[in-house]
Design brief:
Growth Hormone, Chain: A, 19 helices
């Protein structure tokens, strides 16, 4: 329970903090880092479990859990040396300190000053809202204007789609999935699980290199379409195995699971956190991102808790057919609700939600080109 609370706080705060201190040109890459290190942590967990699986059953699970303390201790000490949030400093009337933080993290002094001015404007509105117990901000989120409503649909929707397409089921229950695919022996099942972790971690590096070069939306298209194909392939191959048709079906199922996590990692995995940290105006950003993170975790919990029950009721293959359908729906959602934010300042991103036509398709507008050239 406490670990879940810590993950919830960390998942929300880190992306907001990184977006707050990052230069526009590298914001997408830097806000992908929490997802990268989250995947790396999962991979280390798989390797740790594999390494300690040979110990006594009364000891191995304690060692597996205990080694997780080490990175937590490191992060605890690291918090003493990272710079304070510029937004928080401004709200405490420590504007000069906020300026120093932004100047350290931005090569362009003009951009640092512009971001400081934006934070100051939002801080004035935020301080006013806090006098009423933050009721004003929450009221606006509950009864949003059309632009804010579009932001909420985009931000919360992409967070929910990240989870309801089944990623946590594929990761947490990969031994069960591989067992259904015909893999036998605990060591083989653990090795296959490690392969999933390696794939998921390796391919997220692709997103790092491309997110600020080709943009968020092309990666989201590649990710969601690729996930749909791989999920459908898993479902079909498991159906064939259940009908007694073997052949290449076992290998296809395992490769398709690895392909699914690979496509997840190049797009919707990291980008949902990037978008949540950059599409909302600063006045609403913390609260709106918190709602999105809550939606993400709720969907994760629902998928994780229901996967075994649903798979017993309609088979594992049937469950993956559902995930494939939801993944196909995510392609349409990306097309209709997600704007391209590459190379845009946080103020320019806000303007994208003023006119719904700006979100259609995947064309690069002239103002985008001019901004990139500058």
């Amino acid at each position: 329970l406490l670990a879940g609370v810590g993950m919830g706080f960390g998942g929300m705060i880190t992306s907001l903090y990184i977006a707050e201190i990052s230069p526009t040109i590298s914001r997408g890459t830097l806000t992908s880092f929490p997802e990268i290190f989250g995947n790396l942590g999962c991979l280390l967990g798989y390797i740790s479990n594999y390494a300690f699986a040979g110990l006594s059953v009364h000891i191995n699970w304690r060692v597996m859990i205990g080694v997780g303390i080490l990175p937590s201790v490191f992060l605890g000490f690291a918090l003493f040396v990272i710079p304070e949030s510029p937004r928080w400093l401004v709200m405490q009337n420590r504007v000069d300190e906020a300026r120093l933080v932004l100047l350290k993290t931005h090569e362009d002094e003009r951009e640092a000053e512009e971001k400081l001015a934006e934070i100051q404007v939002a801080a004035v509105a935020g301080n006013s809202a806090r006098k009423h117990g933050d009721k004003a901000v929450w009221c606006e989120l509950l009864c949003p204007s059309p632009p804010l409503r579009r932001m909420l649909i985009a931000g919360i929707g992409i967070q929910c789609f990240q989870q309801i397409t089944g990623i946590d089921a594929a990761v947490f229950y990969s031994p069960e999935i591989f067992k259904s695919a015909g893999t036998k022996g605990n060591s083989n099942l653990l090795a296959a699980t490690v392969a999933v972790g390696v794939t998921k971690t390796a391919f997220i590096l692709v997103a790092i290199f491309l997110i600020d070069k080709i943009g968020r939306k092309p990666l989201l298209y590649a990710s969601t379409i690729g996930m749909t194909v791989c999920l459908l392939s898993v479902a079909v191959s498991l159906s064939l195995l259940k009908e007694g048709v073997a052949g290449a079906a076992p290998s296809l199922a395992i490769l398709s699971v690895c392909g699914y996590v690979a496509f997840f990692s190049i797009g919707i995995g990291p980008i949902c956190w990037v978008l949540s940290s950059e599409i909302f105006p600063l006045r609403y950003r913390a609260q709106a991102a918190a709602v999105g993170a809550a939606g993400n975790r709720v969907c994760s919990g629902l998928i994780t808790m229901s996967f075994l029950s649903v798979s017993r009721a309609i088979t594992v293959a049937g469950t993956f057919f559902i995930f494939a359908a939801l993944s196909a729906a995510s392609v349409a959602f990306v097309y209709s609700h997600i704007p391209e934010t590459r190379g845009k300042s946080l103020e320019q991103i806000e303007s994208l939600f003023q006119d719904p036509r700006d979100r259609k398709g995947n064309h690069v507008e002239m103002e985008d080109v001019e901004h990139l050239v500058q």
